[in-house]
Amino acid sequence: MKEGTRALHTIFNPDRIAVVGASDNPGKLGYHVMKSLTQGKYPGRIFPINPGRKEIFGLKAFPSLAQVSEKIDLAIVVLPAEMVPQTIQECEARTIPGMVLITAGFKEIEDRRGKMLQEEIQTLAERAGIRIIGPNTFGVVNLHYPVNASFTPEFSSIEKGTVSLVSQSGGMSHLLGFLFIEERIGASKIVGLGNRCNVDFSEMVEYLMDDPTTRVIALYLEGIDEPRSLIEAARQGRGRKPILAYKAGRSMTSDKASLFHTGSLAGKHEIYEGAFRQAAILSVGSSEELLDSAKALSLCPLPKGNRVAVLSGQAGPGMVCCDVCEAGGFTIPPFSQEIQKKVDRLLPPLAIRTNPVDMGPAWYDAETTKGIVEAVLRDPEIDALVICVMFASANRAAAGVLSEFLRENRTEKAIVACFSAPHGIWDLEIKALEQGGIPNYPTPERAARSLTNLLRYRKLMEKGD
Amino acid sequence: MEMREKFSTAPQGQERMLSYEEGKKLLEQAGILVAPFVVARDVASATEAGRTIGFPIVMKILSPDIVHKSDVGGVVTGLRDEGEVSQAFHRMMAQVRGKRPDARIDGVIIEKMIEGVEVAVGVTRDPQFGPVLMFGLGGIFIEVLKDISFRLIPIDPQDAEEMIEEVKGYPLIKGYRGRQGDLKSLRDLLLKVSNFITHHPEITEMDLNPVITSPSGSVVADIRIRISG
């Protein structure tokens, strides 16, 4: 493990944490950090640092870092900005390798002093060899340890999984974190990079590439100082783990006016798009797409080719899927003869029996639906499937039967699903489906788009082979 | 590519545009095909040049002070005989002097008119990304539709291929209504430009626009290169 990577590993897996600025006053961030750690079932030891308290959250408090005799792995700092330089020196004295610097009021503020203060802490941290996440971050979360080193205790209720999110914005981290919960997507790590004092996207990508619990890396970026280092890190890791990026600032144009046509055309966003493609980073255009595609990449094999079968319990959702799939580079070919015969036997002639299949006439008959899926799954001329089933009282059994069948008959084909029902009806069936490696989405468009992104990613990976 | 020595210079800390001739020489050293041209100082040598090169020809104003020639009436295409060349010469001088009385005018460039699809290749140095390569279809595709693709320099052969395929106007390069471009020579051109820029950090911006691509190859028909000292 490289030295920088080791420090990051310690930040995500600390045995002992000091909370500098811990508080039992809910009006202070130091309170919420304590709550995150304790409620989040952090298994290590916590040392609240606060000169005015003997005890915080039932734990012995210390007046300063110097009074803690044990070795500390991580300092979470929630002090006012002007006290941070002093704190870094205290961390140096105790050889603390990592810091989560939640404090705001540095480079991001208009006042010039913020920028100067950040430069000061950068120099101090450099000298002390301390890796700092932040400043101006909500924190970091490792669902596997677990450690919730943030001021948002609710992040602890994200399911444990394999998607790691690195975000430049705290607001977007929260939004995406809540989407993780809502969509029941499993996360490994969630990181807010904030002002990126000395840990930037490139270091984080390098670390996550080696992190055994991360299978997919999702990035939210606004604009970074050294984009080439991120591109380089992604290139180094190419083929090991998928990286997705949602880059804000589409409308921003280059601020550099130029006499040259081409120079003035170089909008930053377009350059990012080109650079992402060079590094096999899958670029997406919304929060939803970022997580939908991350989920698909974490659960599903990549399609071997671009031939998709669209099987829908009702005609409409199937048509919608066809639109999205075709626009995304899939073809919707006829089934091979033998398979078509099987489908014909299962469905009455009034249904659309060729690809896309309208399984409508069999919608109340889960076993027939299963038979169609089973036949198509065996078609060697099909690489991927989209399966849509909208709930109706009469087809209640469909999700359970299909979910069980699909779990027990996993193939190398990429399968995405849109099983849709009001909350509380198919929740367990959908969960089982996803545990079986088939991502489910609330709309057919999102299911289909996630599949097209799997195809895009496969094409990115083909480069250089 | 053996071109490590500085070919042209600008005063320390300043930028300057290379002349058309300097630019052409430089590109040719890098193995990049530039449309043949003759510099004509007066109307007599312009008509003479037309005869030598063979009609139809393109006439462009030659001035170190004018970057966007067509904005000031400094480009005329499709001149078919000596009469047209002579007329165009006088009209161009009048128009350019009218619009840019301050500009130094060294004459005109007489260039063979090439049929094909117009594309553009550009290089810019982004403060964060460093050298970036741009590709697009010429004219309204770039200026109005912003139909362009970018890659960080250096690029590899697959990047070159993708840059071309990525633009929406790609079907026009592949061939439409009797006109088509040449993909292989375009890919080569992109790779050569990338390599060229890697070896020439003094080039701050470059605009090869238009590049005319046709089944017989891809030829640079206009050049703007800016260097810094």
Descriptive key words:
heterodimer, A: 465 residues, alpha/beta, Rossmann fold, five-stranded parallel sheet, B: D-amino Acid Aminotransferase, Chain A, domain 1, seven-stranded antiparallel sheet, four-stranded antiparallel sheet, 7 helices
Structure write-up:
The complex is a heterodimer of chains A (465) and B (229). With 465 residues, chain A is an alpha/beta fold. Chain A is 40% helix and 18% strand. Chain A has 2 domains: 294 residues, NAD(P)-binding Rossmann-like Domain (Rossmann fold), CATH 3.40.50; 162 residues, Rossmann fold, CATH 3.40.50. Chain A contains 16 helices and 18 strands. In chain A, strands 9-8-11-10-12-13-14 form a 7-stranded mixed β-sheet, with helices on both faces. About 3% of the residues of chain A have low confidence. Chain B folds into 2 domains: 134 residues, 2-Layer Sandwich (D-amino Acid Aminotransferase, Chain A, domain 1); 76 residues, ATP-grasp fold, A domain (Dna Ligase, domain 1, 2-Layer Sandwich), CATH 3.30.1490. Chain B starts with 14 loop residues before the first strand and ends with a strand. At the A-B interface, α7, α8 and α9 of A face β6, β7, β8, α5 and β9 of B.
- Percent in strands of chain B: 25-35%
> Mean of the pLDDT scores of chain B?
90
Overall number of domains of chain B: 2
Number of strands of chain B: 11
In the CATH hierarchy, what is the superfamily of the largest domain in chain B? Answer: ATP-grasp fold, B domain
Radius of gyration of chain B: 18 Å
Largest sheet of chain B: 7 strands, antiparallel
Number of domains as seen in the coordinates of chain A? 2
> How does the helix and strand content of chain B classify structurally?
alpha+beta
Mass-distribution shape of chain A: elongated
Helix content of chain A: 25-40%
SSE inventory with pairings:
The complex is a heterodimer of chains A (465) and B (229).
Chain A lengths: L2 H10 L3 E5 L8 H11 L5 E5 L5 E2 L2 E2 L13 E4 L6 H10 L4 E4 L10 H17 L2 E3 L5 E4 L4 E4 L9 E8 L2 H13 L4 E6 L8 H10 L5 E6 L5 H10 L6 E5 L13 H5 L2 H11 L2 E4 L2 H13 L8 E5 L2 H13 L9 H10 L10 E2 L7 H12 L6 E7 L6 H12 L5 E7 L6 H9 L8 H19 L3
Parallel strand pairs in A: 1-2, 1-5, 5-6, 6-7, 10-11, 10-12, 12-13, 13-14, 15-16, 15-17, 17-18
Antiparallel strand pairs in A: 3-4, 8-9, 8-11
Chain B lengths: L14 E3 L2 H10 L7 E4 L2 H11 L3 E6 L12 E5 L2 H18 L7 E6 L4 E10 L3 E8 L2 H4 L4 E5 L4 H10 L3 H5 L8 H17 L3 E12 L2 E4 L2 E6 L1
Antiparallel strand pairs in B: 1-11, 2-5, 3-4, 3-5, 6-7, 6-9, 7-8, 9-10, 9-11
